[in-house]
Every structure is written in structure tokens, then in C-alpha cells.
């Protein structure tokens, strides 16, 4: 059972998220909060597997709440809910420890998929969010893009060939178990590689690693032994 916390300052949104999650018998909502401070407090009290946070909340927003939750309850994965026009918030949230990014107006099935992916240790960006992040990065100046691309490639160059394989699959949103099956190794080996990749890249979570992979042009390895 995936124990989940919901935090949004709009009761109707919380009700909608709760209703969607209730359609999956493997997900249980254990607590709800109307602001970021409440989300952090309830996360420490209930230790949920996943916290679903609105990116904009009074007092403590979803970005800072995500960072606090990841610091105080590192076993809790964070999914952030966004609306259109908040691309800069999404990029900030990458550094705050969030592993899932969903658009409120997206397909309800994406919410369930995102919660399940994050609970399984994977990163999850809904297609709409991924497209917006890529477009946002592409909209910056050519010099900025070149600098980011060069920096990303330098960071990736420090990885071993196997770590680069793992990074490319992390960037596609696969969980450790899925990567293990893809690369024909045990899950514990993948977990060790992921930890090493995050450390070598200097990032705190899989979503941030995925951004580095995309900027460096890393692609998944062929699906064969």
C-alpha cells in the first residue's frame, strides 16, 4: 500500500486529488494539509511514502515544503502539482528534492502513474511538463544553452560507461527495478549506480539528474544483454 499525503490550499483540489487516488486500491491517502507548513508537519507525523504538493501555497510554498520534507523525511518522495505558466517554479523545484511533476489539468491517470513511479524510487514528469521544461530551456539564449550543454557533458564525462547507461534510463523515468531488468543486473546494483551518479553529477534527486542527461544528449542504451 502506498501511503500518500495531499497538500493544497484549495479544498476542492484536495478533494479531486483524493478522489483520483481512491480509484487505485494500492494507494491510501493518510493525511491532508491546506498549506506548506501543515504538509511538513504531517509528513513528519505520518511518514508517508509520497507527498503530493501544490507548487503554490500560502506561508510555505510547494518548493520550500518539498525541500523541508526531503530533508526531514528523506524516505518520502515528493510529487509537485503545477499549472501552466509556472515553468520557472518547476526548475526551482528540481533543486528542492521533488521527483514528480504533474499539471493539474492533466489526465487523472498521470497522477496515479506519478505517485506510483515516485513511490518506486523513479522520477516522473508528465508529458506536458517535460515538453514545457524542454521548451523553457530552449527559449534561453544560445550562449546559455551552449554553456549548459558543455557543463552537462563535462559532468557526464566523469561517469563510468555503466553509470551513463543508468543515467540515460533514469532520464526516461524508469524505476530501479525496471532499469535492472533492462540492463540484466540485480536491483541492488542499480541502486548503487544511481547513488554514485547523483553524487558525481552533484544533484540531489533523479529528476535533476534527468535534466542533466537531456542537456548532455544522453540516450538510452540498446535493449539487449
Give structural notes:
Residues 3-119 form the Response regulatory domain. Keywords: DNA-binding, Phosphoprotein, Transcription, Transcription regulation. It comes from Streptomyces roseolilacinus. This protein is an alpha/beta fold and 225 residues long. The chain has 2 domains: 2-136, 3-Layer(aba) Sandwich (Rossmann fold); 142-216, Winged helix-like DNA-binding domain superfamily/Winged helix DNA-binding domain (Arc Repressor Mutant, subunit A, Orthogonal Bundle), CATH 1.10.10.10. Helix content is 56%, strand content 13%. It has 11 helices and 6 strands. It has a 6-stranded parallel sheet, sandwiched between helices. Strand 5 (100-103), helix 5 (108-119) and strand 6 form a beta-alpha-beta unit. Helix 8 (161-170) crosses helix 10 (187-201) and helix 9 packs across helix 10. It is globular and about 45 Å long. The protein starts with a strand and ends in a 9-residue tail after the last helix. The relative contact order is 0.11. The mean pLDDT is 82.
Spatial order of strands in the largest sheet: 2-1-3-4-5-6
- Biggest sheet overview: 6 strands, parallel
The average pLDDT value, as a whole number, equals 82
Report how far apart the termini are. Answer: 33 Å
Number of helices in the DSSP assignment:
11
Give Rg in angstroms: 17 Å
Give the tally of structural domains: 2
Beta-strand portion reads: 5-15%
Coarse shape: globular
Low-confidence stretches: none
Range of helix content: 55-70%
- Structural class from helices and strands? alpha/beta
Query: Can you tell me the CATH superfamily of the largest domain?
Result: Response regulator
Q: What's the CATH first level of the largest domain? A: Alpha Beta
